[in-house]
Amino acid sequence: MLRNEKKEVSCIAMMRMNTVKIILSICLLTCTAGCSADVTEISDIALVTATGIDYDKKTKKYTFTSYCLLPTTTSTANTGKLSDWVVSASGSSILDAAKKLRSQVGKTLIWQHNKFIIIGEGAARYSFYEIMDFMIRNRQIRITSFLFVSKGRAVNLLHMNTETEDLLSNDLLGKVRNEKDWGRSISQSIQNIANWNTDPYRGFVAGKISKSRHSFKSKDALSLSGGSVFNHGKWVGWLDEQDVLVVHLLSDKSKWKNLTFSESFPFHDSNVTLHFKLDKQSIQCRDTDGPTVDIHLSLTSTVGEIEHYLSVDKLDTIIQLEHAASTFLENKIKHSLSHFQKDLNVDVIGFSDLFYQHYPKEWAALKHKWSDIYPTIPVQAHVTVKIDKLGLNQYLGDH
Amino acid sequence: MAAQNKITHGQLSCLVFSYLSGFSTLFLSEAALLKQDVWMSYLIGMTLAIGMLWLLCYVQWKHPLLTMVEISDKLFGHWVSRLVLMIYLIYMLEMQAAACRALSTFYTTVVIPNMPSNQMILLIILCTTYATYLGLTTIVRAVQITLPFFLVGILIICFFLLRDVETNPFLPQFQHSFSEVMYGSLLSLYFPFGKLVVFGFLLARVKNMKKIFSSSIFGLILAALYLLVSAYLTLGTIGIHLAGTATFPFFSSIQMVKFGEYLERIEITIIGIWTIFTLFEIVVLQYVFTILLRHVFRIKNMKPFILPIGLLFFISAQKSFLRLSDLTFYNLNIAPFSTMLPIAIIPIMLSIMTLLRKEKT
């Protein structure tokens, strides 16, 4: 009898405990996301996939442009399609202009999927610090986004249609992806730029985006080619395609490990085009009798095309061709480095970082007059080219 | 003490690692200060923490049947011991307030900006209070369940980050003055390595008393390794300049991880794991706080006081470090010096007293 009573009491206690647990669980449910008032439905959002920032020096106004996509469509005619549109607003600061976009768009703008920041030439020249500060401070903008400087206003480029009729952001992504196949354009992430921007000794090359028109086409097309040079946190000028290729070759491995590019050069009264792939790269600095830099590049190559008959099946010809290609690339690198050192006086490759890392004591003396020393540093470029493939056909014949 | 309330030395290692690694990589203050020489500060900080731990273990070994609070009573006398324990209570209140604020600031800056910080802190404290109510063995089992997820997650992240490290970010070495390195070491001793001092009050709960030092050291070294790897990867991936100015540098570097071209934004999984481990840190602090409070005020049944202690934790966290700059100032200028008393001086005093008593007997 007593045992039954005890059992009953413990059962009642268990039930009470369970009731308390259930009530507590219900209370905690109010903290879950579904019960929050701060909820945004997917039909209420617009994804920003490319952003443009322009600055007018006269009016001191920023123009903030967003290339937006609707992840869902309410129109039955457009089912299965992503609808895109471009919206712009001006303001006294970037944030002010960005906030004004809200008055023009009936959606909540989401920047988490933004991959491209396009900065107008004026903005890059006069307010780059503020733009960088805005981007790395903002939680919605990812530091892996790519930054390009546009020739002209960014807003005009974002309004352009692509040649593939694809979304502009997809088209740009494809062009960034194609960078490794020709090496004449460059895409830099915001993270890299933010890190280099405050370095007082080195500059950097960011991407360049512009309109290009061919003689056989009636309308302009978006083009990623060349680069834009920054030094001491300010835009300095443009870089042509050939110099950008050299920047790729002398940059970190992530920039060149998948890079293939082609070059044409004269050889035995013929014009030869080779496909190159960089296998090894080494940049070493020394400070024995003054600072010097040694560059060693090792490339493999495939014969791409030959203007006239050339006996490429013979070892002698191949060796001569390899030598000619090496000399050609060495001259090309020297020419570009001379431009960086003497014309621009901007350490876009980051020789200062190398001296700092490997010769810290010498660097302590060098850094005070780095801008004077940098243009005079002798740079030795040694290129070794090995032609390992001839293609499917060795030669067409001697006619 | 009942055998079922004891933990094994392996569980102690897991708990030490989780407790130290909670959000130790969130700010990386030493890395921002010493940049490539940060490894020296970690090495010195870790060595000092090992010394402190050895002193605590020595005291515990000499009094195997007593808990650390009882040892304190025995060595210092009743009233001085109370004063010493009060110092630890204040230390733990400060540490939990800093942890709550750091976690809520991180969440409201990065993940959910519209959520009020107080609401966030309340949720944290509700969780930790419930865990304290459940007791040490449950806490340790929870650690054992979550630790593999943390290890796998962080290993994958580190592997993918390592691919982005092009040059050795720890070059050139020895570029900072002796005083800068010592200050950095002081910072790393205060946070995270010195936090280990609260484990002194849990050593008596370990089954195999002989292994308390080795198992704690194992957890400590793993935590130091994790911190060192995080600093290396952060400096190597986002760069020395950006790492020095970013609010949450390791988080910024984790943002760069992507699998292929499309699978990115995986940092949210790491945020989840970080959160759980920070909770463990606060849970341990709250649990030890409860033990000390029980002893100081001679409370027999502690269960009715667990919720009020949680409320005390909530209020102290809610009223402290209202701005991030307050927390930064506290972390860089006040705590490295003020916490020397509980982290270093009291353990040294305990061991000296133990030694003197031993010589007398």
UniProtKB/TrEMBL annotation, chain B:
Membrane protein topology class: Multi-pass membrane protein
Similarity field: Belongs to the amino acid-polyamine-organocation (APC) superfamily. Spore germination protein (SGP) (TC 2.A.3.9) family.
GO aspect biological process, one term: spore germination
Statement: the UniProt record of this protein carries the keyword Transmembrane helix: yes
Cellular component GO terms held in the UniProt record: membrane
Keywords: Germination, Membrane, Transmembrane, Transmembrane helix, Transport
Primary location: membrane
Location(s), subcellular: Membrane
Transmembrane helix found in the keyword field: yes
Protein's name according to its UniProt entry: Spore germination protein (Amino acid permease)
TM ranges: 12-33, 39-59, 79-99, 119-136, 143-162, 182-204, 216-248, 268-293, 305-322, 334-356
